[in-house]
Design goal:
Elements (H helix, E strand, L loop, with lengths): L2 H14 L4 E6 L4 H12 L11 H5 L10 E8 L18 E2 L8 H19 L5 E4 L7 H7 L4 E2 L5 E2 L7 E8 L18 H5 L5 E3 L2 E2 L5 H4 L8 H4 L5 E3 L3 H4 L19 H4 L3 H5 L3 H8 L9 H14 L6 H10 L3 H14 L2 H13 L3 H18 L1
Parallel strand pairs: 3-10
Antiparallel strand pairs: 1-2, 2-7, 4-7, 5-6, 8-9
Helix pairs in contact: 1-4, 13-15, 14-15, 14-16, 15-17, 16-17
Bound molecules: cobalamin and iron/sulfur cluster (SF4) (2 copies).
One iron/sulfur cluster binds next to helix 6.
GO molecular function: 4 iron, 4 sulfur cluster binding; cobalamin binding; epoxyqueuosine reductase activity; metal ion binding
Organism: Ornithinibacillus caprae
Subunit structure: Monomer.
Length: about 375
């Protein structure tokens, strides 16, 4: 079988196993990306979640020495939730970003890529391949862009003509010299909606993100959230979709092709208060299968506490006081104190004062003082 025939068979098979879009590119060096990554590093704009050196990230042959091509895949996920539970005054809710709805996409895309890999190996006995989804060295977006999956938007997402930007990406490096596809010819034009809507100004320029300011990143950190971002994260417990929601290319885009990615409303829009007292076991049972749990429960609980402060939820005061007094983790105790100050009832302020007498941790005491400052601001 010649390579072109094989390519057509792979495309056909990919549709049968639930891959929504597939594209092929060479294994050549990603020269422009290399420069870009260096620049991002100099500016300290990276998140720290990227894997590998700049060379490994941009020279596919460092990952598979006999590499000749890369197959890029995209799988669409929903953008709207049916029967979303309402956030009420008594029971405030948080929100997980769409990329964390349903089953963790890493497993789903890896499964599809492994099926594709087995299919190729059956046809070409000496095929050599390497599969990656998100956690590999390659830039999934740079691969997808060059393989004709979609164009690179000012919000830095890959935007497909068919499914907008609500797609997950993955790839397989191979030693088979497939003919490459052409990049998608589309662009943002004069639009700047994502940059204007970004709550933290993280999109410094069209197509350039300062990840350290991006809420999607900040919701995944484990330390205290810097003050300037606390009022910006709102009720987000994991990730941020703002720059995709406002994008005109995502208008009317809402694909429910894969049952795996259907949101479970009580999980994707969870009640905030119960998140404060969830045990490790309950956390694993409830959130363990979703992408947003990969950093463990602490960042999500911290964000839930900030969310309650954001809502000024007076029904949460008692529970926040219990957390401030008893939680062994300083980040959680301190954030609870800050949130109590933000909610601002007399009971909350009194509890902070009382807790200060027993608290030994410097950072927690600092947060408690910040909590009390809200009172001065309100009364002054
Ligand atoms: C680190 C990381 C993050 C970081 C940093 C994101 C970023 N924009 O760099 C944080 C934690 C903030 C993050 C957030 C999100 N992420 Co993320 N993340 C990654 C990861 C692991 C690496 C990305 C990376 O290397 N970035 C460095 C930048 C410099 O490179 P790049 O974006 O990959 O490549 C583009 C640029 O370099 C640009 N470029 C290159 N040269 C030049 C030159 C010029 C002049 C210009 C203008 C641009 C340009 O073109 C490339 C292609 O678009 C990838 C998985 C992977 N292994 O690639 C997922 C990935 C990018 N994330 C993804 C998703 C879904 C998200 C979120 C939407 C999740 C959410 N809802 O919260 C947000 C979106 C935030 C945003 N605006 O990007 C998807 C993107 C799917 C898509 N359709 O694009 C990926 C591909 C995971 C996956 N396999 O599906 N993520
Ligand atoms: S994900 Fe949110 S914070 Fe990050 S660039 Fe987009 S809008 Fe801004
Ligand atoms: S909102 Fe506008 S500028 Fe931003 S990615 Fe979409 S089309 Fe491009």
């Amino acid at each position: 079988m010649n390579t072109e025939q094989l390519k057509q068979e792979i495309i056909k098979y990919s549709k049968e196993i639930g891959i929504d879009k597939i594209g092929f590119t060479t294994a050549d060096v990603f020269g422009e990306l290399k420069e870009r990554l260096r620049r991002q590093q100099e500016l300290k704009y990276q998140s720290g979640f990227e894997k590998g050196t700049i060379e490994e990230r941009t020279e596919p042959r460092r990952l598979l020495p006999e590499a000749q091509s890369i197959i890029s895949i995209a799988i669409a996920y929903p953008s709207r939730m049916k029967d979303a539970p309402k956030s009420t005054k008594e029971e405030r809710r948080g929100i997980f970003a769409r990329a964390s709805w349903g089953i963790d996409y890493h497993h789903v895309l890896r499964d599809r890529l492994e099926k594709l890999e087995a299919f190729i190996k059956e046809k070409v006995s000496d095929a050599n391949t390497k599969v990656m989804v998100d956690t590999g060295e390659l830039s999934d977006r740079a691969v997808a862009e060059r393989a004709g999956i979609g164009f690179s938007g000012k919000n830095t997402s890959i935007i497909t003509p068919e499914f907008g930007s609500f797609v997950y990406l993955g790839e397989m490096i191979t030693n088979i010299p497939f003919t490459p596809d052409s990049p998608v010819e589309d662009s943002c034009g004069d639009c700047t909606k994502c940059m204007d809507a970004c709550p933290t100004g993280a999109l410094v320029e069209g197509g350039q993100l300062n990840a350290q300011r991006c809420i999607a990143f900040l919701t995944q950190t484990k330390d205290f959230l810097p003050d300037e971002f606390r009022s910006k994260i709102g009720n987000r417990v994991y990730g941020c979709d703002t720059c995709q929601i406002v994008c005109p290319k995502n208008k009317k885009v809402d694909f429910h092709i894969h049952p795996e990615f259907e949101p479970e409303p009580e999980i994707t829009k969870p009640k905030l208060k119960p998140m404060l007292r969830i045990s490790n076991r309950e956390f694993k049972e409830t959130f363990g299968h979703i992408a947003g749990s990969w950093r463990g429960k602490k960042p999500l609980q911290r964000n839930a506490i900030i969310g309650l402060g954001h809502y000024k939820d007076t029904t949460a005061v008692e529970e926040l006081i219990a957390v401030m007094n008893n939680d062994p983790r300083p980040v959680i105790r301190g954030t609870a104190a800050w949130s109590l100050g933000k909610i601002g009832t007399d009971e909350a302020y009194a509890a902070i004062r009382e807790a200060m007498e027993k608290e030994n941790d410097e950072q927690v005491l600092f947060e408690m003082n910040k909590g009390l400052e809200f009172q001065t601001v309100t009364n002054g």
